[in-house]
Structure formats: structure tokens, C-alpha cells
Specification:
Helices cover about 25% and strands about 25% of the residues. By secondary structure, it is α/β, with parallel strands linked by helices.
């Protein structure tokens, strides 16, 4: 008796299953995300026995140190931890039009220029369109191949027939497996494609780059398990209205996480920015109230950024709070501390904050700079232009220590700053930096007395 295929309903948001269609997913609570999928019966599946491997002692495994593949794009190599590791699977996500495809075309162009045989698979553009964009970006090479294909089996056969040194899939949401009944971009298709490309990379040693779309909330579209399977997850950040793009590593099995690379978008594509601090501070006004410079750590790199604050009278019943580049909840916490510990009445005023250059700061070391920018605008008194501030603000108004304080101060000294306000608990850990003086502060009120 031939078994019939069964059907299930799978959520396209979380991957959960349900026996029948429902308006709301019982797993994640999202609406209208359940899609019918066919489950292959036993007769439809391939028969065979998999090879059983014997476990081995970890100390008995011979490991050879292999050199990383340098792409020639310094900022990209920095984010990856020094270069590409053979057999790694790298997932790159970002908003539409942010520059993901442009970056990968330039990376493959550099690799092919170094004699590496590369394949760029596009499911969204034709070969002619890829060629036009490559010529506009000055990207090409004798060893760079392009193809427009979405069939997973065809791509795997294509790669197995030739020995490539790098493979780019643009994008993973367009790839489909003919034996899977769901549509391209569904959870099942993305998971199957990611699994096959991971198996390809691990068995052949070819580094595979997967370009992924993001959802409206900023997460990479598809199941979260895809991010767990790959070795490295990179996010392309930036505002389309700004020329700067930031490539951030949020997961990296072969290097540091939260490392960033800074690029500038122009008519020739993406250009590296080797000294982001100089670029972010190039247009800073030296005597404007509400402008403060702080040193934040992005991975292993200290970067100086300008934080701007504006406090003004409110024309509405409810004061506005507009925060760009900072955590909205963190700013609200600091405003509450300033009202309680400094006696500044900010509750009825509009507050606007911005980090110049489109940078996003998530670490608490910028707390003191946020408070100083707000106080400077509230008092209408500028902070001395050669002064920088680093420190975390507690709920009782104390200034807490932050990590990598020495590296932050060295970066500030290179950029011409002469004074730095640091938490009192870190003074003993600091060594002298030429041209830089330290101001030890323990409470937020002490910092306001020093600055104003």
C-alpha cells in the first residue's frame, strides 16, 4: 500500500508547526504566518544507510595552522578577524540598498585579482546586470565568474564540477530546493539551503558567503537556526542619508565579536575609512553648547564620536524625546538621575540627542558624555573643546569604571585632546599618556563642577 504525503502548516516567522491553519501562530504569536507544506512520505525519501563515524580523542587530532585568506579590503579583513578561514560560512545581512551586494562584488574582485577563482551566484539579477554593475564599480577579474541561478541542486553541481576558492550566494532567500514543496524564502527552503551550503563548505573547504535580507524589525529574515549554523554573522548598518556604512560582526567563531569596519559609499562603491575618529569629528563645532566627544569601543578599536544634545522648551503638552544612535531607555535613565541628583528640571522640556556620522552606541561608557551634552545645552555653556569624557553613570549618581580605558585615552590623545574626565576607580590603572591630563571624578555632580 502506497503511503500518501501528509501536510502540515509551518510558521514563516519562527518555524513552528501546527496540524491545521490558524490565524495566529501558537508558538510566537505572529498573525497570518502559517503556510501549508507537504511532508514527504517514507516512499518518497531516499533509502540508504549513513556512514557511522567513530569518536576520537580531541588531543589526538592533528591541527595545522592555516593562513587566512586576505581579501585586500582591510576593513573587511578586520571584521572577520584577519581574513577568511577556509571552509567558513559567513552570513551578511542588512537593509535593502545598504551595499551588501556592492561589498561582495568588490571583495570577490580583489580575491580574483590575487589569483583566486571565485563564483558569484545571483538569484535577483541577470548576468548582464551584474556585469553592468561590476563595470560601474571597477570590479572584475580574470578569475571571477558570475551566474544567475536559484535552483539549489544546480548550484551545488556547478560548484562540485569546478574548484572555486570562494562562493557568494545573493541572496539565500531566493534559493529553492525542487524537492521541497514550499515557496522560495520560506522557513523550510532557507533552512534546507543553509544546511546544504554549510555541508558544502565543510566538506570542500570553500568559504561561502550568504547574503540575507532583513525583516522590518531589523533581523535577518528566516529561522534563527540559520544564524546558529553559520560561522560568522555580519550586519551592514547605516542610514541611506549618510555616506558612511558600518559592517559589524555579531558572531564570529574565528575572531572577536562586535568588531566593526567603516566604509564610505560613493559613485565607485564602498571605500575604506582607516581612521573613523578623524572622519566623525571633522565637522565638529568647537564652541557649541550641547556638543561632547567620547571614546567608545567597537570590538578592539577605540573610536571617538561626537554626541550632541539639545534641550528646549516644549510647545506641546507632552515633551518630545527624539534619540538617534543611542539607547532610548538609557537616555531616559540618565535624565532621571540628572533631575534627582543635580536638581535640573528636564521633565517638561523637549530633549533631542544625536550621534554624528550615523554611529550607534550601545555600551554604557557614553553615559557621562550624554549627561554632559544635556547639561551643556540646558545651561547654554559649551564644554571645552579639548576635553573628552568616559564613564558609566549609576542610579545614585556615581561614575563607574569602564573597560579598555587606556586604549580610549590613547586614541583621544592622537586626535589632539588634552584632558579626559575618567572614573576615580580607574586612575590607579592608568599610565601616563603624552599630552593628556586626567580628571578623576566619582560622582556626576563632580563632573558638572569641573566642566561648568
Amino acid at each position: 500500500m502506497i503511503k500518501k504525503d501528509k501536510f502540515t502548516f509551518r510558521c514563516q516567522s519562527c518555524g513552528g508547526q501546527a496540524p491545521k491553519w490558524m490565524g495566529k501562530c501558537p508558538e510566537c504569536g505572529e498573525w497570518d504566518t502559517l503556510v501549508e507544506e507537504r511532508i514527504l512520505s517514507g516512499a518518497s525519501k531516499k533509502k540508504g544507510h549513513s556512514l557511522v563515524l567513530e569518536p576520537v580523542l580531541i588531543d589526538s587530532v592533528a591541527v595545522e595552522e592555516t593562513d587566512r585568506i586576505k581579501t585586500g579590503v582591510g576593513e573587511f579583513d578586520r571584521v572577520l578577524g584577519g581574513g577568511i578561514v577556509d571552509g567558513s560560512v559567513i552570513l551578511i545581512g542588512g537593509d535593502p540598498g545598504i551595499g551588501k551586494s556592492t561589498l561582495m562584488l568588490q571583495v570577490l574582485s580583489r580575491l580574483s585579482g590575487n589569483g583566486k577563482k571565485c563564483l558569484y551566484v545571483s538569484g535577483e539579477e541577470s548576468v548582464r546586470q551584474l556585469s553592468m554593475r561590476g563595470k560601474r564599480l571597477d570590479s572584475g577579474g580574470n578569475a571571477m565568474y558570475v551566474v544567475s541561478e536559484t535552483d539549489l541542486n544546480s548550484i551545488l553541481a556547478m560548484v562540485e564540477g569546478q574548484k572555486y576558492d570562494a562562493l557568494v550566494i545573493d541572496s539565500i532567500q531566493t534559493i529553492f530546493h525542487p524537492d521541497v514543496s514550499s515557496t522560495p524564502g520560506s522557513v523550510t527552503q532557507i533552512r534546507e539551503a543553509a544546511m546544504q551550503f554549510m555541508k558544502l563548505a565543510k566538506t570542500t573547504g570553500i568559504p561561502v558567503f550568504l547574503i540575507g535580507h532583513v525583516t522590518k524589525v531589523g533581523a535577518i529574515a528566516g529561522p534563527k537556526i540559520m544564524e546558529h549554523m553559520v560561522d560568522t554573522v555580519l550586519y551592514f548598518e547605516g542610514d541611506k542619508s549618510h555616506v558612511f556604512r558600518i559592517l559589524r560582526a555579531v558572531k564570529n567563531r574565528f575572531g572577536p565579536t562586535n568588531e566593526i569596519g567603516v566604509f564610505e559609499m560613493n559613485e565607485k562603491g564602498l571605500t575604506e575609512v582607516p581612521n573613523p575618529s578623524a572622519v566623525f569629528l571633522s565637522e565638529r563645532s568647537t564652541l557649541s553648547p550641547g556638543s561632547v566627544v567620547t571614546a567608545c569601543m567597537e570590538g578592539s578599536r577605540p573610536i571617538l564620536v561626537e554626541i550632541q544634545g539639545l534641550v528646549s522648551t516644549s510647545g506641546f503638552g507632552t515633551p518630545r524625546r527624539t534619540i538617534l544612535g543611542l539607547d532610548h531607555h538609557r537616555v531616559s535613565l540618565i535624565v532621571a538621575v540628572m533631575e534627582k541628583r543635580l536638581g535640573m528640571n528636564l521633565s517638561g522640556l523637549d530633549i533631542f540627542m544625536n550621534v554624528t556620522g550615523g554611529v550607534k552606541i550601545v555600551e554604557p561608557s557614553a553615559d557621562l558624555a550624554i549627561a554632559a551634552a544635556l547639561a551643556s545645552s540646558f545651561l547654554d555653556k559649551p564644554v571645552e573643546n579639548k576635553t573628552t569624557l568616559v564613564g558609566e553613570v549609576g542610579l545614585t549618581g556615581e561614575i563607574r569604571a569602564v573597560g579598555h580605558i587606556q586604549a580610549r585615552i590613547r586614541e583621544a590623545s592622537k586626535m589632539g585632546f588634552a584632558r579626559c574626565l575618567v572614573p576615580g576607580s580607574t586612575v590607579k590603572q592608568l599610565s601616563k599618556v603624552k599630552g593628556m591630563s586626567f580628571e578623576s571624578i566619582r560622582f556626576l555632580k563632580d563632573a558638572m563642577d569641573v566642566l561648568f
